[in-house]
Amino acid sequence: MKRRIFAAAVACAATFAGLLGAAPAAQAATSVTFTPRTVTSPHETQYVAALGSVQLSMTANQTAYVYSTLRANNASNTTLIDNEVRCSSTSGWTKNEVLGQNVIIASATGTPASLRDINITTRFLVHPGAAGTVTCTTYLRSANLGLGNSTVRLASGELKFADTSVANTTAGTPPQADDGDTPPGRVIGLSSAAPTVREPATGIFEMAPVTGLSVFGDMELMACYPEPKGGCPVNSMTARVTLFVNQWKADGTLCKSDASSSVTALVRRDVHHYVVPLNTRFTAATGNGCVPKFNFYVKTDWVSGSTGAVQMASGGLPDAAGSTAKHYDAMSHAFAVAY
Fold first, then answer.
1. pLDDT tens-digit profile of 85-137?
2. For strand 205-206 and strand 212-223, is the pairing parallel, antiparallel, or unpaired?
3. 126 contacts 87 by C-beta, under 8 angstroms
4. Which domains does the chain have, with CATH numbers?
């Protein structure tokens, strides 16, 4: 009797499951939180660790917005911290971006807390141009700038697809400007003799009608570049960094412009690499001949102090700790997400 009751229960369960349909297959994560940890960084060679990955099945025309952030502090010695994101698709496409900054030794209490407890965000658009599954992985890269090893606390962080359907230009390309990840590292000098850099920059592009654009310009600045023999004679560089967004009329004249997102950055010699994140929400104009044609760029002006630079792309970075295989990453970049 019990056997028949059990058999009937199984049959009813199977029928009910059939009515509901088969259980869905597990979906790959589109967001991940990093596990806090203390990392040991060697002197003048890079520690490289994968912190987490996300995946997204994308069509040939799809563009997504990738966002990675990490917080590092409690350094036993001043240490370089990089937030690197490497993306690849089953179609064969790849894209890498990295931003980084030195976190100052925790015991330097006379140094601003913002330099001893840092947040680095690496964010950009991915557009494989062919259907496939895109995997993006955040890597923590670190190197002790003193003798021996240093320890740094990775306090928190996350990686996610912040938007999986970003509007492209009418040409079918993402509204983004960077060096890409194939050329060797490009660095543009800043000094009193060459005080202005207008990169990264887009050309004029057209969108389908939009309410506006959220435009990002994330810059990697360097102080004391190139460093002279005997060290830098001045301990910091001051630069003004401004994000410009323009809209155009049908006749090719300017419709409106915005330069409200601007920062005057002091880049100390001991910080050396300094990340300047900019963002502005630009409301599109209508009427008076204005059309949804835009361009944007970041303007960096040397103000005073040491010579310096804008880093547009990295040199060869080891794929892993101790690896002889290397790759290139874009660094300073700008992009827009329509709303």
1. 999 999 999 999 999 999 999 999 999 999 999 999 999 999 999 999 999 99
2. unpaired
3. yes
4. 26-166 (2.60.120.660), 180-339 (2.60.120)
